[in-house]
Amino acid sequence: MTSDKQVKASHRNVPGSDAFRAFIASGWASRSTEPVPRVAVADHAADRRAAVSQRFPGERLVIPAGGLKVRSNDTDFTFRAHTAFAYLTGLGADSEPDSVLVLDPKPDGGHEAVVFFRPLASRDSEEFFADARFGEFWVGPRPTIQDIESRLGVSARHIDSLADALAKDAGAIRLRVVRAADEQVARRVDQARGGTATSEGATSGATAEPNEADEELARFLSGMRIVKDEWEIGEMRRAIAATHQGFDAIIAGLPEAVRKGRGERWVEGLFGLYARHEGNGLGYESICASGDHANTIHWTKNTGQVREGDLILVDAGVELDSLYTADITRTLPVSGRFSAVQRKIYEAVLEAQEAGMAAVKPGNKFSDIHAAANRVIARKLHEWGLLPDGVTLEQTLDPENGGLHRRWMVHGTSHHLGLDVHDCQMLLRKDYMDGELRPGMILTVEPGLYFKADDLVAPEEFRGIGVRIEDNVLVTEDGHENLSAAMPRTADDVEAWIAAVQSGAGA
Ligand SMILES: [Mn+2]
């Protein structure tokens, strides 16, 4: 319903004969009627929906998955559902374009969860053999209504009945929709609310109130993910273990990356292979940045050479079928050993990371992590004499008038991590930056130092060196657990890791 429109080539339209239609619809073994087993995440998704239900009593809540997005002409990008939809249904990889979760208020309180989607079409339908986008002949069978119901423990209905379901008692019931997930569904909700849909999908006519209400829903759904349950923590451990394997593969492949030329792409491909094999794919485009490219924070073009003697910064994460993703950065000496100056910068970043990690404990604020790491970064730069003449450490740390050290680390130190690599993005500053750390939160700690090749303020020997170290950390009752601790991190351990993997001994 709300996937992007594809451009169809008219030369592909072959009218089928009646004989063909009858023939292709017949002669298939009957489909299994075995109930699909309930998935482990179903109970957790039910708990999450209960929390949403409690927050918005008596309201109809509309959470679309979103549709297919055209890459070019009649080909689409791989489908990825909106995170709020995945979180509240438990559906993950490839599931289900154009579907919509509706939490429908029940007269006696609470909500009924209904997934509206496009179920498997029968064999006598045109879709079965002729629909290259959704048809079973082309993309494989989709779930049936019964499949979704038994797998997820929700009610399921055909997507064609969504419009009526939205409009039911619309005057009497307040509707909210996650607008960003699907503009067309948002417009339908606007219509059901009685406003006039504008081209931006915003409501005019009634009041501006419905959009504020929508915003409130989106923020709640984003923010409620900030503390992870046990099942989610397990998924994050698995995503990190898979990411570790990908890094092992990169290390094993470094000599070949050097030999082949365009080595950053080779490294990207190795990680992508593991991501696709171990999980659903990449949680975000991998940054494979060798030499001076490491100084481009989001270097994802990955077109460069990997050269002996350089460092390669790899920032990559495997996303599982459940859509939980890791987000790890390691900066590796291509030849297996850090030079003295590379090690000096690496160890400064490591010290900053240790300071950041030490600040990860309940009661501290999220922003305390950055403050702790940043202080080390600023101190090192001050000691090395890189700050302008006369600028003291305390002056550069003054957030209002200082910040000069940020020339060499322009990004933040941490973000929440989970279904989205930058998780819980909709939260307001008071709940994110100024929010208190609580057990169950998972976040990154990832300071860096970046000396561009053309940075004339940096000492010549620093130029072209960029280092970031990033781990994924769980807040526990009494502090934190570094979930990626199995991936070597100190300069000595990184060298030993490379030596072990490349000698075939494994890490
Ligand atoms: Mn990150």
| Termini Cα gap | 49 Å
Shape: globular
Cofactors and ligands: manganese (II) ion
- Kindly report the spatial arrangement of strands forming the biggest sheet: 6-5-4-1-7
Region (Disordered): 189-212
Domain Aminopeptidase P N-terminal: 39-186
Biased composition (Low complexity): 194-209
Enzyme class: hydrolase
Topology, please?
Blueprint: H1 18-24, H2 41-55, E1 60-64, E2 70-72, E3 75-76, H3 83-89, E4 100-105, E5 111-117, H4 126-130, H5 136-139, H6 145-152, E6 155-158, H7 162-167, E7 175-177, H8 183-193, E8 196-197, E9 203-204, H9 209-223, H10 230-260, H11 263-278, E10 281-282, E11 287-290, E12 311-316, E13 318-319, E14 328-333, H12 340-358, H13 366-383, H14 393-397, E15 442-445, E16 448-451, E17 465-468, E18 471-476, E19 479-482, H15 491-502
Parallel strand pairs: 1-7, 5-6
Antiparallel strand pairs: 1-4, 2-3, 4-5, 8-9, 10-13, 11-12, 12-14, 15-18, 16-17, 18-19
Manganese (II) ion binds at residues 327, 415, 444, 446, 470.
EC number: 3.4.11.9
Pfam families: AMP_N, Peptidase_M24
Biased composition (Low complexity): 194-209
